[in-house]
Amino acid sequence: MSDEEKLEESLRDEFDALGKNIKDAFTGVWESEDRKRISSQIEAGISEVGEAISQAGTDIRESETGKQMRDEINGVADRIRTGELREKFEQDLVSILRSVNTEIEKATEGLSKSEPSDEDGPNEETVAGE
Prior knowledge:
It is built from 5 helices and no strands. By secondary structure, it is an all-alpha fold. Helix 2 crosses helix 3. The longest helix is centred in the C-terminal third of the chain and has 31 residues. It is elongated and about 110 Å long.
């Protein structure tokens, strides 16, 4: 066996040993009591958070504020179903549009009165510039 072949074999052996050592290290860490304890603590913590969120939801639903919110939401839903809210919205929209149109009319009246039309004949600037 040549020196080059011995070197290649040594490299192969070292990489094999490295792979085995890395695998053993990960296996050891994964199976360690510390990892199992930490995993159990994380699972317990997540479970406690879930229970706390569930309890908070129950508390809110059963509280006076929660009941008021539910009643208000149901009231809005009823007004939407009966068309009351839609009718009120349409009335308000008509009122707003009427006000906007009135203001635009006022603004455009002022503009059209201050500008002479072509029917009035040439103005002084046109005559002087000719």
